[in-house]
Amino acid sequence: MDIKISHDQKNLSGNLQITGSKSESNRLLILKALYPNIEVENISNSDDTQVMQKALNSKDEEIDIHHAGTAMRFLTAYFASREGREVVLTGSKRMQERPVKLLVDALESLGADISYEKNEGFPPLRIKGRKLEKNRVALQANISSQYISALMLIAPSMPDGLEIKLEGQITSTPYIQMTLEILQNAGIKGDFKKNIIQIQPEKELSSKTINIESDWSSASYFYSIAAVCEEAEIKLSNYRKTSLQGDSCLAEIYEKFGVETEYDKDTVILRKKPWKRPKLISENLHNSPDIAQTIAVTCLALGIECQLDGLHTLKIKETDRLVALKTEMEKFGARIDITQNSLRLFPLKELAANVSVETYNDHRMAMAFAPLALRVSLNIKDAGVVSKSYPSFWEDLEKLQFSVE
Ligand SMILES: O=C(O)C1=C[C@@H](OP(=O)(O)O)[C@@H](O)[C@H](O)C1
Ligand SMILES: C=C(OP(=O)(O)O)C(=O)O
């Protein structure tokens, strides 16, 4: 499905309800599979969460998790620790190019039996579940925090719990913190000090209902929309001032774009007011890689110079996001320099109209470029990709008076 989007007003307002964080949802689904008396409310309606639910309920030998990185990594650890169960965990063509070796090595050092069905270091994986008896592991922490969260999630179900030593620089740290806090909220003891994570074993948990906060990465597109408008008021529920999600740093980052954030009970209100445009926006996003595309495109729309660093993980996400951003932003006439871990965008006064944005099977490419419609009409190719994290994204844009055809 290719779509054309446009918007003919300078101001907008509206109320939206986004579903629960896909990161929190996928963690809680693993925990619920290990401790069935956990109940979850406001679960994400994303494809990534649906494939996770399906995988956990499946009795099949082959399980396909499509494009879902968290499902791939968390389920690798989960199935490796399920004694007597054998599965082949596979995914989309891109998933088969996303590395998983550090996690497999860590699990093998704990006693797991995992082999590669095609290429060494990448899915598909054949996993023969075993009781993992050891209780110490070390792994490199600068490639993906998902490997570490995967180990933490199965840790309380291991006989002696688990100590995880993180080596080198730690990337996407708030996601590790999120995993720890989810375990603690469920009643599991653990801590994360310097580079050591310790999770205590737990046989049973008392019944608990956990309400998931809505997804902050999804909220990022509305911050961007508000920023590009002259005036805006967008209300989003169900959000909290104290969040487990690192991407809630958006509230602070978008102050620089003139967007103010107010919390009213479970609703977050984004307000764009007249502001003084900065010459340069400069951010290090090693803690919040998923909002890099959003911020880059906000700067493109507003003609602001932008320097983003800490982007070394973007190359192994749904697509190589650095190359995809450069290629697509250049179609609007912009000049962009990228390195292995950074992006610099030079300001541009006039944007080319009627550009067709390729999305490369990456939901965030589609959603990040949408706010440009407030400046010029544009086409988004394969717009259905948004369902990976936010299936009702285009309907929600229509609620904000965007024309989506
Ligand atoms: O644990 C998680 O839920 C996630 C961790 C991050 O990945 P990396 O740790 O690979 O950067 C993030 O990009 C991804 O969307 C979700
Ligand atoms: C990188 C992402 O997801 P995952 O790694 O879970 O596929 C994302 O949602 O931006």
UniProtKB/TrEMBL annotation:
Any single Pfam family the record assigns to this protein: EPSP_synthase
A GO term for molecular function: 3-phosphoshikimate 1-carboxyvinyltransferase activity
Enzyme class: transferase
Binding locations of phosphoenolpyruvate: K22, G69, R98, Q146, R321, R364, K388
Annotated catalysed reactions: 3-phosphoshikimate + phosphoenolpyruvate = 5-O-(1-carboxyvinyl)-3-phosphoshikimate + phosphate
Keywords carried by this UniProt record: Amino-acid biosynthesis, Aromatic amino acid biosynthesis, Cytoplasm, Transferase
Residues annotated as the enzyme's active site: D290
InterPro entries documented for this protein: Enolpyruvate_Tfrase_dom, Enolpyruvate_Tfrase_sf, EPSP_synthase, EPSP_synthase_CS, RNA3'P_cycl/enolpyr_Trfase_a/b
Residue stretches making up the Enolpyruvate transferase domain: 57-397
Entry-linked PANTHER family: AROM/DEHYDROQUINATE SYNTHASE, PENTAFUNCTIONAL AROM POLYPEPTIDE
Assembly and oligomerization: Monomer.
Function summary: Catalyzes the transfer of the enolpyruvyl moiety of phosphoenolpyruvate (PEP) to the 5-hydroxyl of shikimate-3-phosphate (S3P) to produce enolpyruvyl shikimate-3-phosphate and inorganic phosphate.
Protein's name according to its UniProt entry: 3-phosphoshikimate 1-carboxyvinyltransferase
Organism: Autumnicola musiva
Gene coding for it: aroA
